[in-house]
């Protein structure tokens, strides 16, 4: 049933596939970034390394691909919380090579997660260990070096709420995967921190009229608002009249349906349609398939679990994959 | 209302039909990675369609043992595994073959809907189209193959070996019989008899069957001396008779020892009885239009004719059964064997039950000998229940599950069975048969369902199948046929599918763009071309990059490229890069006017070209040409001020031309004025310091002054 595509070097800690699942980027504890390509691009045969270089002194903890409209590029998040953008380019009849174009650092706070969203311009949302969220905007669509800080805010509904110094262990961001269309860009973010107000996952939408980001939905029941969020995933919508988002906390895996039309407060109507248990602990990652009908998750129990809704709209675990040696 | 779905239906509502989730326990599949070290983390990513890629990272790399040890693996898992009976290659052949019947049926559906102005194509002769579709699919699943044995007759061959039947084909035919073939509804029982004759062997995997019995008997045939003394001979014949395999029975009867020439004289009576039974069997009346050429039995199309013949036949059997000849027959085995066969033909439940191996065979035997007129689903269902009670199944075969769903008229169960046992191809295609079956099913399957995100069950299964198709490089291109048959969400999925195709290879790219054009997905098409443009531009194929960005009409990026071209103005660049630069200007210019300042770039290119010729040789013509270009550039209002100085600095050679002044007084004055303007502009805050040596402006002034003097003298 399973086919082996690649063996990693020692110390590899993270990996990520590009938009067309034809290139794999991986990062290691020794700070090296590797890129792998299929030997025969048309068939998913085996992969070979096309780039490998030490790009940082410390470990790389996350690799994220930039949308293909902006080139073949990855953002590497390091354990010390720095983001560096690397791109494969050929300059002035030189051969193709991976080059560093930009490094994002921010004082003492560390970047925990970054995700790219692209509608009219490329935007990068970064979640920081002090609970701040920063949205950067790319100024020149052909050059990945010029970025502008578009907004900075905390993941709270009431901006006036006061709390002590926040310490966040992890964060998870997921953009609405819509392409084109008239909708404003929006994403969801949740934190795993010591500050209850920051934790719950919230949907942020850009308000064109006032040029600012607004929280339009909070995906947590009143009694669960302080729960630490492990992972969020926004499902592709191929024609539903509502959006579907998965949120994982220690209570389990919540599946939320989010209405498209805001009420008079500007909030989107939402409903938790399922709370599923399975991983018993930390959820590492959640990924929706291309139709938004199947959710794959991994977590602390070392399993891959697959979730679906049946014909009656009841969500359940459909199957599990158990790694064995 | 379809009513509350049964448990099976809920279970089978699964979108991904995993092969063996027959019970409610969660199926757990092993993921063999072969790593020795414990696992620290997993990463997952969906590839195309249903394939999931899992990265497995080892915890502590075992440095001590060997440096070659592996830090992790990437595995690809294809979900929704298909039918174990059918190879991937064969399934792909089926997938390709079923596209055109499916597409034809869809286009007919829309024609009919347009005619009726009603969405439901049910009524009229719709089923005829469905039947035609079904026949085409059947032929795709493997046609009957004439076995070589049929040509060279082997008297000892009882069971013919034809093409290996598949459960998939058997299931399809079963659904065709019940849902699509309205013409044969009148002789449904006979069609089932035929169906079992073709597919009984498939059940051998889970239980004893008559087919299996016959095959085993045939194997031993060569070792048997006196066939009629072997109880298995009679057992095999009565079994074959019970499910109506008349040809086989008659053929076996003729193997009876009494037919042998040397025996004929002393076993005349015995032989007469055997022959009488054989004749009765071969005259059995059947309620069906006609049987395949050469098959035994007499066919009657109309019920009254059949009833008459049936009565007469039965009376003949009864007569033979009561005949005094039996007492005179001294071969015990023959006597008992033949009389048992007569009882089967007379429809004695006990004998039938003994002769058949499992409930489905018993069920079929009822149609033949007890209730040839069984009609209507309810009575068929009750009969099946009765047979199951008489012969409780030890395990369920996937075909019997489907059968019970069909005769139980439970559309959900039928769908669930199809989906679970035969996979997404089956459901997506068989749903056409189901909807042709009844208005109730039609409503159930076409109703939009909020729980499914506002789509119908039909659409859902097409989407699921399309997703399976898109998992493979060889089949994804037929997925659009199924997606475009989905009113609500097909296009959305098609967009996602196309967006995820790689753009590096032109043939694939062109194919994708063609698909976009076909389905009017302009948005996606321009996005694909944009991605291709950026890819080529950044990977050093500037020409292809500009071409695709122009195709995508991406004004923003084209403008940026034009801006980048300006950066080269006034800089000394190598021949190679000048050529490339020139090529890009050419490309950008071929479109009407996508980027500003192009006029300047064109003129600048002409100027630069003649200037290169000048530096190459000493041609005065070239120098004159360059001068003309220079003046044109300086006169033109579209030439940005920041380029004046670099332009003039580049032209120093022209201004100091040895063979005489190239500029006349008027032209020289124009340039002097520009230099003056530049000196003033320098005082403004937004002035951009051009990238030229500090003394440039002085040398230009000097050259212009010299030129002016020489020009005045010349004039």
From TrEMBL, chain A:
**An MF annotation (GO) of this entry:** structural molecule activity
Keywords of the record? Nucleus, Protein transport, Repeat, Transport, WD repeat
A GO BP term here is: positive regulation of TORC1 signaling
Its GO CC terms are:
nuclear pore outer ring; Seh1-associated complex
Q: What is its main location?
A: nucleus
**Which PROSITE patterns does the annotation name?**
WD_REPEATS_2, WD_REPEATS_REGION
Record-given protein name: Putative transcription factor WD40-like family
Q: Which SMART domains match?
A: WD40
Automatic annotation (TrEMBL), chain B:
Q: What main location does UniProt list?
A: nucleus
* Xref: InterPro entries: Nucleoporin_Nup85
Could you tell me where this protein is found in the cell? Nucleus, Nuclear pore complex
GO cellular component terms, alphabetically, are:
nuclear membrane; nuclear pore outer ring
Q: What is the taxonomic lineage of the source species?
A: Eukaryota, Viridiplantae, Streptophyta, Embryophyta, Tracheophyta
What's the name of the protein?
Answer: Nuclear pore complex protein Nup85
Q: Return one Gene Ontology term, BP aspect.
A: mRNA export from nucleus
Q: Which UniProt keywords apply?
A: Membrane, mRNA transport, Nuclear pore complex, Nucleus, Protein transport, Translocation, Transport
Please describe the quaternary structure of this protein: Component of the nuclear pore complex (NPC).
**UniProt keyword annotation of Cell cycle present:** no
Pfam families per record: Nucleopor_Nup85 (PF07575)
Q: Which GO terms describe its molecular function?
A: structural constituent of nuclear pore
Answer yes or no on keyword Acyltransferase.
no
Highest taxon above the source species: Eukaryota
Q: Which family does it belong to?
A: Belongs to the nucleoporin Nup85 family.
Job description of the protein: Functions as a component of the nuclear pore complex (NPC).
